[in-house]
Design brief:
Length: about 210
């Protein structure tokens, strides 16, 4: 693959990832905003079906207080991802250009812009987000080593992961209810209630 084709492919992947991240953020915000209304409508359907005591029993045993200390598995998940050598190397190049300590000679506006970009680079490093780090380095005009086919495969896997997350979100019941025409929302909620009831009955048998 020629350098020119690699550059075009890199720009395409960068743009696609940027779009998917913004779309995912938008969808998450939309769903978060609709949760209270969805829960209210769900409760109304439960009451209408005469299943309040099944789904919202009054005499439940008191729940144990959650353990304030995260267990080993939780602590493991909370750890930051270890940055690859490529990401670590690029971050050092970026830091030499836009670390907050090196911005004293820039205007206030430029300082704010570069500080924001540095925070993005730090986040990319913590998440081992190689495509984002390469993109930031490219924006800053830094010399990037020849991108290998293996690295392109990593970029494409990142994009596939975003697509899968977005697809899972869009296929959720709450998204189906949110996006349904006004005249179809009751049908979607009824189907959801049926699904929840069926799942509960299956779990109760185990």
């Amino acid at each position: 693959m020629s350098d020119r084709i690699k550059k075009i492919k890199f720009d395409k992947l960068t743009s696609e990832k940027d779009f998917l991240e913004k779309e995912l953020k938008y969808q998450k915000e939309m769903i978060q905003s609709i949760i209270p209304e969805f829960d209210k409508e769900y409760r109304r359907h439960v009451e209408k079906a005469g299943l309040t005591d099944v789904f919202f029993p009054k005499n439940l045993p008191p729940k144990k207080a959650p353990n304030p200390k995260p267990n080993r598995e939780t602590r493991r998940k909370m750890k930051k991802k270890k940055a690859s050598k490529g990401v670590e190397s690029l971050f050092k190049k970026v830091a030499k250009e836009i670390h907050p300590d090196k911005l004293t000679n820039f205007s206030k506006q430029e300082q704010e812009s570069k500080k924001k970009k540095f925070l993005e680079a730090s986040e990319a490093k913590n998440n081992n987000d190689s495509l984002k780090m390469y993109s930031i380095a490219s924006e800053l005009g830094l010399l990037i080593d020849n991108i290998s086919e293996e690295q392109f495969s990593i970029f494409e896997q990142q994009i596939d992961n975003l697509k899968s997350e977005l697809e899972k979100l869009n296929n959720s019941w709450i998204a189906a209810w949110m996006n349904a025409p006004e005249g179809s929302k009751n049908a979607v909620m009824s189907n959801y209630l049926g699904y929840v009831l069926s799942t509960k009955q299956t779990m109760d048998k185990k």
